[in-house]
């Protein structure tokens, strides 16, 4: 009864009556894996041991490298997709144990302790109406303590709430290289340029230009994880030159794209 694909585990599998307090699943794949929007009755912590994830919730889209994990409270609607070769894990927490865990979806930086506890728990065989034995219970408490105490990481792309702006934002997430300027996007979305400019700031905390830049950088992380050359990424995302892309990337992440990819591979 342990899920084998953490990205699209059947809610009926992880929420079955009498299931133990914690269920952990491990999944692998050599191709892109995608889960459609869904929710679980349990809280869910998931991440990758190798590769990159894109995770969407109602209020944001996150690109999550292997050094981070995503926490979702119970009944929180979400979708996820992997990029390239992938090894991932999920820990599903019974709803009654989530009261003192984060109340909002967030990303956290994983610790060595959390990773080892999750890998240990992945070898358990959950049984209906059979509680965790004391050694397993102690490992489960370690996982809960790590979720409770690890600091959230400000990683992601906040989405606007206004339906017209959300349509524009989703189009940019799908293809962040599109060359339309603010006025052209406003016309495409049947909204005034002034409204787009004002509401992007009030609803996302970013100007439209900064938000679009962030969308491009989030996509660049996916492309780096897939092994694409830096020059190809720059051109595909609409930058005039590779050096322009490298400069923007370094300003945002503190390192060049090449160094970031080396660290991503090393963390995996």
Automatic annotation (TrEMBL):
List, alphabetically, the InterPro entries matched: Homeodomain-like_sf, HTH_AraC, HTH_AraC-typ_CS, RmlC_Cupin_sf, Tscrpt_reg_AraC-type_HTH
Under the heading Pfam families, the entry gives: HTH_18
Query: Which keywords, in A-to-Z order, does the entry hold?
Result: DNA-binding, Repressor, Transcription, Transcription regulation
PANTHER family linked to this entry? HTH-TYPE TRANSCRIPTIONAL REGULATOR NIMR (PTHR11019), TRANSCRIPTIONAL REGULATOR-RELATED (PTHR11019:SF159)
According to UniProt, the name of this protein is: AraC-like DNA-binding protein
All residue ranges annotated as the HTH araC/xylS-type domain in the record: 166-263
Instruction: Give one GO term, molecular function aspect.
Output: sequence-specific DNA binding
């Amino acid at each position: 009864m342990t899920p084998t694909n953490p990205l699209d585990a059947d809610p009926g599998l992880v929420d079955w009556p009498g299931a133990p307090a914690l269920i952990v699943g491990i999944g692998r794949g050599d191709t892109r894996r995608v889960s459609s929007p869904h929710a679980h009755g349990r809280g869910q912590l998931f991440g990758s041991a190798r590769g990159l994830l894109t995770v969407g919730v109602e209020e944001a889209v996150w690109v999550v490298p292997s050094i981070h994990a995503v926490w979702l409270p119970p009944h929180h609607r979400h979708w996820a997709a992997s990029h390239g070769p992938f090894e991932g894990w999920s820990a599903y927490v019974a709803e009654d144990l989530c009261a003192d865990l984060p109340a909002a979806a967030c990303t956290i930086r994983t610790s060595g302790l959390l990773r080892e506890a999750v890998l240990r728990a992945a070898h358990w065989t959950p049984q209906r109406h059979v509680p965790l034995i004391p050694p397993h219970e102690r490992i489960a408490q370690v996982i809960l303590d790590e979720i409770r105490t690890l600091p959230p990481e400000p990683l992601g792309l906040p989405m606007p709430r206004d339906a017209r702006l959300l349509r524009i934002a989703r189009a940019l997430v799908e293809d962040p290289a599109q060359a339309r300027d603010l006025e052209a996007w406003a016309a495409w979305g049947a909204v005034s340029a002034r409204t787009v400019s004002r509401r992007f700031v009030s609803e996302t905390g970013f100007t439209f230009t900064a938000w679009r830049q962030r969308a491009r950088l989030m996509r660049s992380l996916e492309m780096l994880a897939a092994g694409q050359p830096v020059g190809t990424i720059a051109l595909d995302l609409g930058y005039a030159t590779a050096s322009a892309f490298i400069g923007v990337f370094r300003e945002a992440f503190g390192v060049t794209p090449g160094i970031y990819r080396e660290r991503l591979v090393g963390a995996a």
